[in-house]
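YM 10:42: Cytochrome P450 sequence, as discussed on the call
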Amino acid sequence: MSLEVLGTTTVVINDLKTVVELLERRSSNYSDRPSFRMLGDVLQTVSSNITAILALLRNPTVQEKSHEEILRVVGRKRMPTFEDRKDLKYIEAVLLETLRWRPVLPMGVAHAQLWRMTFMKGISFLASIILARLSSDLPVRGILHDPIVYKDPFAFNPERFMGSEPEPKPSTFGFGRRICPGRFLSENSSFILVASLVWAFEILPTEGEPLPDSMAYTDHSLSHPLPFKCTFKPRFDFESVLDEEAR
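YM 10:58: structure's back
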């Protein structure tokens, strides 16, 4: 049975078994498959890492503070590890600011339900499961650059997430039950990459090349910096450390 409500057809189902069968069909959606989600996590991590390199290149003071923390916690006799993460507070703040400063998905991710239906059982009990087609395009970039929430929002400032009154952590991975399940993979991958780069290299402008424009990003749903050049200058002879750890 169907009803016409405000120009939209609503399917009314009086059988719980039918409702369950319809819900189970959702598993055939590509968006529900782990492989599809994992691909999105990988793409988002790569874009975020490139943004982190751009931010460190354009903000040498932030880069130097990151390196000082790495030297204090890790030293030069070994590489950073995941166990160091709890002690690398400034590096963690750099990663949070990277996600806020240039979110990979500036408009969020649209979600849509496949069916609109109301489930009714019996006369005395009314229960409804309304699966309305809904697009949840959230202006993530606007939220994360709200000057009421974030002071000087267009500046790259990791210190905003430190101290006794830190600003809210960025919600770049979504909200509620639809939050990205691969956020832990993305966060851990970005941490170990950025920590290792800062430990081993000084990121400098390439001689003869202009400093990359911090606003030069693609205009696709998945946003990342346009190609730019930089120089990775070794801070010390770390090859001997790598050889020792590889044994």
